[in-house]
Design a protein that fits this description.
Length: 73
């Protein structure tokens, strides 16, 4: 059985990473950073761990294979 649908079409890697959907607002107090507030985003990003190409999550799930986003320059 072929596993080409499970790898990055750009580089062949089979490892992907997600970008956290939370970020912290920091303040520099008394010579160190302190978290002032935290915010969550609705955005989820998955990229190839090897080459950094961005995966189109919805299209990948719809097609049942890894599909990369086409980024406009």
């Amino acid at each position: 059985m072929s596993t080409t649908h499970k790898i990055c079409p750009a580089c062949g890697s089979d490892e992907f990473v997600s970008t956290p959907n939370r970020y912290d607002v920091l303040a520099f107090e008394e010579s160190k950073f302190e978290v002032v507030d935290s915010h969550f985003t609705d955005e989820e990003t998955v990229t190839c761990r090897e080459c950094g190409e961005v995966v189109d999550i919805e299209e990948s799930e719809r097609q049942g294979k890894i599909v990369l986003k086409v980024l406009t320059p």
